[in-house]
Amino acid sequence: MSRLKEFGEFGLIELLTRNLHKDNAVTLGIGDDCAVIRAKKEYLLFSCDAFLEDVHFRREWASPEDIGYKAAAAALSDIAAMGGTARYMLVALACPPDTDSAYLERLYGGIKSAMDTERVSLIGGDTTSSPHGLVLNMTVIGSAQGNPVCRSGARPGDLIGVTGHPGSAALGLHALEHGESNAPEVLIKAHLRPRPKMMEGFFLGGANEVNAMIDVSDGLLQDLWHIAERSGVSMNIDTTKLPISTEQKDYAHKTGVSAETAALSGGEDYELAFTVSPQTAGQLLTEFNLQFTLPVTIIGTVGKGPAGITVDGAPRTPEGFDHFQELK
Amino acid sequence: MSRLKEFGEFGLIELLTRNLHKDNAVTLGIGDDCAVIRAKKEYLLFSCDAFLEDVHFRREWASPEDIGYKAAAAALSDIAAMGGTARYMLVALACPPDTDSAYLERLYGGIKSAMDTERVSLIGGDTTSSPHGLVLNMTVIGSAQGNPVCRSGARPGDLIGVTGHPGSAALGLHALEHGESNAPEVLIKAHLRPRPKMMEGFFLGGANEVNAMIDVSDGLLQDLWHIAERSGVSMNIDTTKLPISTEQKDYAHKTGVSAETAALSGGEDYELAFTVSPQTAGQLLTEFNLQFTLPVTIIGTVGKGPAGITVDGAPRTPEGFDHFQELK
To answer: Does A55 sit within 8 Å of B35, measured CB to CB?
Structure first.
């Protein structure tokens, strides 16, 4: 076991960045002032996400592999939400000087496992000390074949679709917070190891009929509100259509929490929400179901502006996760 | 005065990102899942730097404008070190929920002031809460006309050059730490407001004779060691050639600290160190002096491998700033 204090910054970088996948366009990877990519004529997508101990994760629940995996997954998910392909990642890590290097190897193992699935190259980053807890910052770069799918393209008349079972991660977090050790594994996993929906996003992004898309990171209402606002449309959710799984129902029943509230306002599912023109929605969903095991469900409709969200026709304010209003 | 708790994440983003320069290639800026850039066939440079309160800055010495400016400058400096042009930036900000929004406006003012000088576009970022102190992560993207200048190109026989007066920032930090209120302003400014040497880096990077380059962020010995290691060469520094300014000399004399140690091991100057073939060094330096007011000085020579650093012929281990060995 060796502590970072003895290990040194550069030994650490070497240890953590062995055996990495390297894309052909990477002219220069880790180890210089900058990474160098030989770009072609293409659309490049950029996103970054901060990931702080006791805000975004807790070490008592999450293994270092979980923490690394989820940080990478959350960043990758932003690329999926535009219908792009993830290509490169930079990881800035700040950690207390007495952190065990084996812990960080495991954390990077989690990052690599999320990256390797998508053949993403780690091209750079930073390592520094932190006076309080672990801090990760993930920068992800992707590319898009055609026009990326933005939040601003929703049109009145569109149907609203969502993948998977939103709210699962929030119920998983509830179970961890309340020591519900008999909670369904699928809920716990939804919170600790959310899979970014890369292939699904690429498929939906490639379909001309998908007019707007976002990943559900802050909660369905909050994230759909972003589409409504950017597109200048109203959106109505039909709660009878919400894809609440058997496990969500069972857990909600046993604990008295609302599976519907979790589905509408719970964050960190990293499912994809999108709007699709009604003429072609049926065929798109059929094709989606042929290609993927993940369910996709139509949960509502897009109406004219002004921008707003209604649930079963009743106006709602976006009440998802706001990092400044509630410290978790 | 409004606290972030009431302000909300999205109100904050709007407040902080008004009136930004936007490059023509930016298809989509802040406000979607990703930023979108229309790349051409070109080399793109990527770097990221974490910037933590009480590690990289202290609020009691640095104004919010200073903190933002320096965080951006440090990131931009990595692009200068490759001879590139800075183009885009993403800023991830984590701050305590009771932070005053006016404080953050001033901090972003500092970031913008560093970016505007270089016509860099802020294309994205993240805002989240932090349980302990401010955390910034700066991701910078640049482009290079020809081949970027790497650390690995130094050749035996090259001369070692450096811009400015390395060690000034370390002496400025010493003055702040020891309450030396009569310390020369130029030293304090070197620590609080280091100017990234963008034009100088672009000039040196465009010169065929410059074989390797790095920015002096961890201290001259440490950073030259990176060149030595990557290039497989030895490097000797002649201390009589170190460009120690009158202000450095005076401050060192008054306080009993060593200006030479500061020049060799002090970090955060963001000067540029490079190696240049001896045949053309004279002409390059003449042209540099015609274009810039910043001095440039030859301080040593490159010899054959194995990789190593000597100071006046005596072997030295790189003893610059290592974030894990000393928490500042």
So the answer is: no
Contact B78 A34 (CB under 8 A): yes
Both A303 and A174 in one domain: the answer is yes
Interface contact flag, A8 B325, Cβ < 8 Å: yes
What is the bridge-based pairing of β-strands A210-216 and A121-129?
unpaired
Strand order in the sheet with B35-39: A121-129, A85-95, A135-144, A42-52, B35-39, B26-28
Taking residues A1-26, what's their average pLDDT?
Answer: 68
A135–B94 C-beta distance less than 8 A:
yes
Are residue B172 and residue B291 in the same domain, yes or no? yes
Query: What distance in Å separates the CA atoms of residue B137 and residue B252, rounded to the nearest whole number?
Result: 34
Are residues A311 and A184 located together in one domain of the fold? Answer: yes
Of B43, B129, B151, the CB nearest to A327: B129
- Beta strands B85-95 and B121-129 are parallel
How many helices and strands, by DSSP H and E, does chain A display? 11, 13
Give the distance from residue A230's alpha carbon to the nearest chain B alpha carbon, in angstroms: 9
What is the Rg, in whole angstroms, of the alpha carbon atoms belonging to chain A? 20
Is there a single domain that holds both residue A26 and residue A57? yes
Question: In 3-state terms, what secondary structure has residue B230?
Answer: helix
Asked if residues A241 and A299 have their Cβ atoms less than 8 Å apart, the reply is yes
How far apart, in whole angstroms, are the C-alpha atoms of residue A207 and residue A33? 39
What ipTM score was computed for the predicted complex, to two decimals? 0.91
Any domain includes B325? no
Cβ contact (<8 Å) for A44 and B39?
A: yes
Which tokens in the block code for residue A241?
């259509």
Asked whether residue B111 falls in the same domain as residue B186, the answer is: no
SS3 content of chain A, % helix, strand, coil (to 5): 35, 25, 35
Q: Alpha-carbon distance B36 to A40, whole Å? A: 14
B156 vs B27: CA distance, rounded Å = 45
A309 and A166 assigned to the same domain: yes
Q: Which residue of B has its CA nearest to A41?
A: B40
- Which residues make Cβ contacts (< 8 Å) with residue A140, sequence separation at least 6? A46, A47, A48, A75, A76, A78, A79, A86, A88, A89, A120
Provide the number of structural domains found in chain A: 2
Give tens-digit pLDDT for A24-82. 788 887 888 888 888 899 999 999 999 999 999 999 989 999 999 999 999 999 999 99
| pLDDT for A325 beyond 80 | no
Q: Are residues A28 and A133 in the same domain?
A: yes
% of chain B beyond a pLDDT of 90: 76
In A168-280 the beta strands, taken as DSSP E runs, fall at 210-216, 234-237, 271-276
Residue-wise pLDDT for B123-133, tens only, equals 999 999 999 99
Half-sphere exposure (CA, 13 Å, Cβ side) for B166?
34
Same domain, A255 and A135: no
Q: Closest Cα to residue A193, out of A311, A80, A69, A102?
A: A69
Tell me which residue range forms the domain holding B120.
8-144
- Angle of helix A198-206 relative to helix A278-291, nearest 10 degrees, comes to 140
Give me Rg for the CA atoms of chain B.
20
List B136's β-bridge partners, or say none: B51, B93
